Amino acid sequence: MINYDIIAYFIGSNILLYFLIHIPLDILTFKDKREKYKEGSKDYLPWGNQNLIKVITVIASIYFWIFSTLWPIIHILSWDNFILFFNYEIPIIGEAFQYIGMIIIGFGTIIACIGRIARRTQAISWGVPKELTVKLGFRIVRHPLYASYCYYFLGIPLAMMNYLLLPLILGIIGYYYTTKYEEKILVEEFGDEYIAYQKKVGMFIPFIGRYREKKPAKEKNGGSGEI
Q: pLDDT tens digit string along 137-151?
């Protein structure tokens, strides 16, 4: 098994980098939205019947942030015996899984940061964007921030080998359905431009999950289905 001091420093450094990139840009985004609200703009994301999905994603995200922010600190202080009590081991391949988990976490941080830089003060969760962002992290996956959460939700349980973190995996389901819902709105907003983008870039994983148009169903008698 990998020394948990190494994992603590690795997770802590990834979270610190995330904060250094995101917090200044989030402050600018908040100020921008506040100014637009004062001017009378009331753009918002129509969530419809997505309340359960919102609950799943919010709970998983809060759980992730509490753990990933506090655990590295309390581990260095040796106050995490209760948490480490729930660790488990997988014979032979367990350490390999931990390294894979750390790679997944690192990749999640990279796309989260360069994706956040690309979208500047835009965020669909704060309102439907007025222009489509396809630079930097958005060239790797269509939803860098949501993808990074999914990578964290998978990578941290693998790296930690801890039963308490397995519920994070449910958050991947929440973010998947959140993304599918938001993409319907983006298609309505940007039309063929967004569909073309979906065809080129994967949703959460590079080159995987690209949009494929359904071929017309053939007639039972062997016809082409064309009129």
A: 889 999 999 999 999
Ramachandran region, residue 53 (left: φ > 0; alpha: ψ -120 to 50; beta: rest) = alpha
Residue 9 to residue 106: CA distance in whole angstroms: 12
Which tens digits make up the pLDDT trace of 58-111? 999 999 999 999 999 999 999 989 998 999 888 888 899 999 999 999 999 999
How many residues are listed for the chain in this entry? 227
Rounded to 5°, angle at Cα 108 from 22 and 102: 125
Task: Output the pTM of the full model.
Answer: 0.85
CA 76 to chain centre: 27
- Domains contained in the chain, CATH given: 4-38+49-200 (1.20.120.1630)
Q: Which residue has the tokens 């690795």?
A: 10
